[in-house]
Design brief:
Blueprint (H helix, E strand, L loop, with lengths): L1 H24 L66 E5 L2 E4 H15 L18 H21 L6 H14 L4 H6 L3 H25 L5 H10 L1 H4 L8 H27 L2 E3 L4
Antiparallel strand pairs: 1-2, 1-3
Helix pairs in contact: 2-4, 2-6, 3-6, 6-9, 7-9
C-alpha cells in the first residue's frame, strides 16, 4: 500500500509540473507555411500593370476606396500650319462652304498680296492690316471672293500653276517680308504661303478671263448720251475731246457690273458667309 501511494504521488506531481513548464516556455509556434508566389501583371504579356493583392488602393477624399481617377487626356497639338507658341490671337471671320476663314489668314493673305503682286499706290513699305481697322471687313470680303473664284476656276480648269511662276512668287514674298516683324508673329509655314500663292494665281488668271468676256463695246451714241447727261462735268469742251475716255469708262463700268453679278452668284453657290461684314 505504501508503495502504491508513493507511485500515485509521483505521477500526480509530474502531471502538475508539465503544464507549468509549458506555460513557462510559452506557446509552441506553428510551422510557417510558404506563401504562393505573386505574379505581377506586368510580367504577363498583353496585360497592363496592376496593384498586387497586398497593396489595396489608397482611399480617396471622403473615404471612398475606389480606384483614383485617371489623368485627363493630353490636349491636341496645334496644326503644322501654325507653329506652337504663336502669340497671334485669331478668330473665325468667314466661311466658304466648309472652308473656315480666320483673321490670321486674312492678315497673311494681305501681306502676301502686297509682297508678290504689288503694293497700293503711294506705298513703299508693306502695310500690316489690323483686325480693328475699318477696312478689315472689306479685306475679309476680298479673301472670300478670291476663294470662290479659285473654286470655280478649279471646276473648269485642270491645269496647274507653272512651277517656275510659283517659285518666283515665293521668292518675292520671302524678300518682301524679310524684315517684317508682324510676319514673324503670324508664323506662316512655307506650305501655307505656297497654297495662298497658288490660290491667288489661279483666281487672278480666271478673273482676267471672265473680265475679258464681260467687256461689251460702247457705241458713239451711248457715249454721247452719257456726255449730255453729265454735261456739267465736262465744262465747255466738246464731246470729241472726251469721246474715247467716256467709252473706256462705260466699258469698265459695265464690266464691273457684270463681274459683280457673277461674284454674287458664286457666293450663293459656295455658301459664303462674312461674319464681320459692315
Amino acid at each position: 500500500m505504501q508503495c502504491l501511494g508513493l507511485i500515485f504521488t509521483v505521477v500526480f506531481a509530474v502531471g502538475l509540473s508539465a503544464p507549468r513548464a509549458e506555460a513557462a516556455r510559452g506557446p509552441v509556434p506553428k510551422p510557417i507555411q510558404p506563401k504562393p508566389p505573386v505574379v505581377e501583371a506586368a510580367e504577363i504579356p498583353g496585360l497592363p500593370p496592376t496593384r498586387t493583392p497586398t497593396e489595396p488602393p489608397a482611399p480617396t477624399e471622403g473615404g471612398d476606396s475606389r480606384a483614383p481617377a485617371q489623368a485627363p487626356a493630353e490636349a491636341p497639338r496645334p496644326s503644322a500650319a501654325v507653329a506652337p507658341g504663336a502669340a497671334t490671337v485669331t478668330r473665325v471671320v468667314g466661311e466658304v462652304g466648309e472652308q473656315i476663314i480666320t483673321s490670321r489668314e486674312v492678315q497673311i493673305n494681305d501681306i502676301v498680296e502686297q509682297a508678290a503682286f504689288g503694293r497700293l499706290p503711294g506705298m513703299t513699305a508693306i502695310r500690316v492690316l489690323k483686325g480693328s481697322e475699318k477696312t478689315f471687313p472689306n479685306e475679309v470680303g476680298n479673301v472670300l471672293r478670291e476663294w470662290v473664284v479659285y473654286l470655280e476656276a478649279r471646276a473648269f480648269e485642270s491645269g496647274e500653276v507653272p512651277k517656275i511662276e510659283l517659285q518666283q512668287s515665293i521668292r518675292a514674298v520671302q524678300d518682301g517680308v524679310a524684315a517684317l516683324a508682324a510676319w514673324s508673329r503670324l508664323e506662316p509655314s512655307s506650305q501655307e504661303v505656297a497654297e495662298i500663292l497658288e490660290r491667288k494665281i489661279v483666281a487672278k488668271r480666271f478673273l482676267r478671263l471672265k473680265s475679258d468676256s464681260a467687256q461689251v463695246p460702247i457705241t458713239d451714241a451711248e457715249a454721247l448720251a452719257y456726255y449730255k447727261k453729265n454735261r456739267l462735268k465736262f465744262g465747255n469742251l466738246p464731246f470729241t475731246s472726251f469721246r474715247e475716255n467716256i467709252k473706256a469708262f462705260l466699258i469698265k463700268q459695265q464690266m464691273d457690273r457684270r463681274l459683280q453679278d457673277w461674284l454674287e452668284v458664286l457666293e450663293r453657290k459656295y455658301k459664303v458667309r462674312n461674319f464681320i461684314a459692315g
